[in-house]
From TrEMBL:
<feature type="region of interest" description="Disordered">
    <location>
        <begin position="1"/>
        <end position="21"/>
    </location>
</feature>
<protein>
    <submittedName>
        <fullName>Uncharacterized protein</fullName>
    </submittedName>
</protein>
């Protein structure tokens, strides 16, 4: 048997007092420190329909490499992350911005599955329809207004 002790500053997942607003605020503060130098816009490319699902990070945190295609209704494909390209997205890409990665509200958090709660506890974000909030990262241009003809 090992004599190694568990680090005392780590709280096992699932045992954090994550049922209230204080926990969500702690996550926000923790993630503010862990910002990365990208603009927060990403595209997930689906090989099945050959289209992109465009997302924005409205809170700092962790996002997945793969997700189910959301660009084409009823597409069974899996889309892969473009890895947050370093160039600024062109306006045509911003026009397709329909999804955001965000920390859930306290009420939303309470409704998550145990697996998703663990994901959020570990710094993960939740995908939801784009609310119009700005990116959590500096330098992201606002979504351009749609031009009516």
């Amino acid at each position: 048997m090992s004599n190694r002790q568990k680090p005392k500053n780590r709280i096992p997942l699932g045992s954090e007092p994550h049922r209230g607003p204080a926990h969500i605020e702690v996550l926000r503060q923790r993630q503010q420190v862990e910002r990365t130098p990208h603009h927060g816009i990403n595209a997930y490319h689906c090989d099945t329909c050959d289209k992109n699902t465009v997302t924005i990070d409205v809170d700092p945190g962790v996002t997945p490499m793969f997700l189910a295609c959301r660009r084409t209704p009823d597409c069974p494909g899996q889309a892969a992350s473009s890895g947050y390209p370093s160039t600024d997205p062109p306006p045509v890409v911003l026009m397709r911005l329909e999804w955001e990665w965000a920390l859930p509200t306290v009420d939303e958090f309470r409704k998550l599955s145990p697996e998703m709660k663990a994901h959020v506890d570990a710094g993960g974000l939740v995908l939801q329809p784009y609310s119009g909030r700005p990116s959590a990262y500096a330098g992201v241009p606002p979504k351009p207004a749609r031009v009516s003809s």
